[in-house]
Structures are given as structure tokens and as C-alpha cells.
Amino acid sequence: MAKQKTTPKSISSCRVVVKVGTRLLTHATGKLNLGYMEKVTRELADLSNQGHEVILVSSGSIGAGRGRLNIDRNPLSIPEKQAIAAVGQGLLIQIYEKLFAEYGLIVGQILLTRTDLMSRRRYINACNTVLTLLKLGVIPIINENDSVSVEELKFGDNDRLSALVAGLSDANLLVILTDIDGLYNCNPRKYPEATLIPYVEKIDEKIKAGAEESHDNLATGGMVTKLQAAEIATNSGVGMYITNGYDPGVVTRLINGEHIGTYFQPQERYLSRRKRWIAYGQVARGSVTIDKGACNALRFENKSLLPVGVVDVEGSFAEGDLITVKDSDGTELGRGLTNFSSEELIWIQKKSSPDIANLIDRPVAEEVIHRDNMIIY
Questions:
Q1: Are residues 264 and 298 in the same domain?
Q2: CA distances from 16 to 47, 117, 136, 170, 328 (A)
Q3: d(CA 328, CA 33)
Q4: What pLDDT, on a 0 to 100 scale, did the predictor assign at position 78?
Q5: In sequence order, which residues have a C-beta less than 8 Å from that of residue 301 and are 6 or more positions away?
Q6: Tally of domains within the chain
Q7: 87-114, pLDDT tens digit by residue?
Q8: Interatomic CA distance for residues 228 and 248, integer angstroms
Q9: How far apart are CA 108 and CA 40, in angstroms?
Q10: Helices marked H in 70-188 — which ranges?
């Protein structure tokens, strides 16, 4: 864990990640909203001129590709989505490059897939690329590489991606621009009595209950993925706003200390960069269920997980894979990098450490998951 960072409030310079959603960037026809793109570009360019470091996470590649190819039917096959995204990605960066160039700024495009962040080395490379671009005065423009991403390994809209980028870049603030004013206690489009929640200190089940997924033909997220992004951001020490992207100058006003929309307070003790990668950069390949004694050791004593505490193994995974840790009720307690394959764990579960060497024909660690490679919620 690391010490909490200061939330930016009218400070001279900060590092801000701005995520712009598909609904803002495209018209109902699916074609790009060039007027809105120009407005956002102008504001971000002005923030850069003020000394702030700006990272743009931009959706819209599939929407842009649909418009260019005049495709408005649904559903689309995965190859069709990937081909449309390939067209849209080129169109998006071409327009951004032209717009930012009018204000004397250079942009650099980074297209990421989930597998890029699952690999520790590639995660570090992505981090270094973003930080180096900022050092060179370049505005990174980041999008999921939808032309090669597969459904089971997608980030889940660019909301989650923007939070991961905020974490790996040690940003001060993440701003998710959308087409509503923030987080409500229920869907304001369905329920006129819905009220805005201006401040969230902790994301609990009550907060999650009012969120809904998107069923839009162009956008893919909705409030569910925004809350997932908020969990990632706040556990990475980054404050996050959900706010209306149509509100003039909203990002500048937020950086200057105004509270517009819904603000998510970063956790007082947040995850180190390595543990952010463990918690959010990977996909769990399986799980283990542990007994009550092991639960207490992990939760209250900061202990590693030993084979003797494992009572069940699910899934097929290899040494070094990410697995989840559950209690006897099936509640997920945390996750971490396993020192054993699923096959090996089946052999050694409930066994004491001295017995392991006799069961496995290779040098092994004593722990199933070492505490340095584990996140407990």
C-alpha cells in the first residue's frame, strides 16, 4: 500500500486522464460529431498550455467505422466489428491529429488490448510509453484495439481502460465524460424522481444497485462499467469524476476546484503499481476455496496462503497465473499469482508444507500465493 495523494483542487499543474464516450463523439447516424471533437480538443489543448499533462482515452472507433462504411444493421459478427474498428481507428486519429495540430500540439496513438496489460513486461512498456510521451510534450490518445480484441478479453468499454491508464500513469484525476450529469440513485431516463449522487466515498452494493448496462448500438458501457472504473481508479489512488461532457469547459472547471457531477474519493491507502497490475491487469484463470483459519490469516494477519488452508480447486491454470481466493460461502476474498498449477494444487491441498516436496517433483515455494503477490479486498 502507499500513502494517499492529494486530490487536485485549483492547482498549477496536474496529470489528468479524460475519457470521452461514443455517444458524445458520434451522431445518432453513427458518423463522427466533428463539432464536439473540436470543442474537446480545444479545451484539452488549453489545459496543456496551462501546464497540465493530458491523456485522452477516446471511444468511437466502431461508431466512426460504421458511419464511414454506412453500416447501420445489427447484430454484427466479431470479424465485422473488428474490420469496422480498423477503419474507424484510422479515421479517429487522423481527425485528432489535425485538430490538435491547429493548436501546435502533437499527439501519439496507443492501441491496447487486454493481453497487453496481462503481461507484466508489456504493462511496464505501456506505462513507460505513456510517461515518455508526456515528458516529450505529446498528448497520448488511447483506445482499445477493437480490430484485434476478442470478446472474452475485452476491457469492458473504455471506462475500465481509462481507469487502468490512470493507474499505470499515476494520474491525479480521471474524468469520464458522458451524456448524463453523473451517477444517480436510479436511471434518470426511466425514473423522473431519480436524484444525483454528488459524492461517493465508498462503492458499496447500494451504490451499484442503481447502475444499468448500456443497450446502445454504438456505445457498449453504461453506468455499470463506470462504477467498475471508479473501483479501479480509487483503489489506485486516483480521484474520479463522472460528469456531463456537454457542459462547457467542464474539465477545466473540475481541475480549478468546482464539483460538477459525481466525484469518487480515492482510497486513503491505495495499491502500489505492481499490485494494481495483479488486481486489475489480468484475467483470473481459476480459483481456490480456503478454510476459516486461512481466511483469518489472510484478512487479519497479512499472511501468505499455504496449501494446508486450501479445501477446493476450480478451473485449469498454470504456475504464475492469476487466481481468485474464496471463502467457504463462495465470497471472493482477493486474488493473486499462484506458485502451483491447478493439477499440483489438487495433489497438495490440505497438506502441510513439509509434505509438498514429496508430492511434486520440482523445486517449489512453500506458499500457494505469497502475500507480496496477493490482493485482499
A1: no
A2: 10, 20, 16, 9, 41
A3: 51
A4: 81
A5: none
A6: 2
A7: 989 999 999 999 999 999 999 999 998 8
A8: 26
A9: 17
A10: 78-101, 114-118, 120-135, 157-168
Which cell is 376 given?
Answer: 485482499
Q: Is the dihedral of CA 179, 181, 183, 184 positive or negative?
A: negative
Q: Single out the residue of 81, 85, 109, 84 nearest to residue 95, CA to CA.
A: 109
Residues 199 and 344 in one domain: no
Q: List the domain range (segments joined by +) for residue 302.
A: 284-376
Q: How far apart are CA 345 and CA 78, in angstroms?
A: 36
Closest to 44 measured CA to CA, from 105, 92, 131: 105
Residues in the chain: 377
Residue 194 and residue 140 share a domain: yes
- Pair type for strands 107-112 and 139-144: parallel
Which is more confidently placed, 169 or 359? 169
231 and 334 housed in the same domain: no
329: domain CATH number?
Answer: 2.30.130.10
**Torsions phi, psi of 322, nearest 5?**
-85, 130
Cis, bond preceding 266 (omega within 30 deg of 0): no
Question: Own/partner pairs for 129-134, CB < 8 Å, 24+ apart?
Answer: 130/55, 130/165, 130/168, 130/169, 131/169, 133/108, 134/15, 134/53, 134/55, 134/169
Same domain, 296 and 335: yes
What nine digits make up the cell of 126? 505501456
Nearest by Cα to 325 from 282, 272, 368: 368
**pTM surpassing 0.70?**
yes
Element (H, E) at 299: helix 292-301
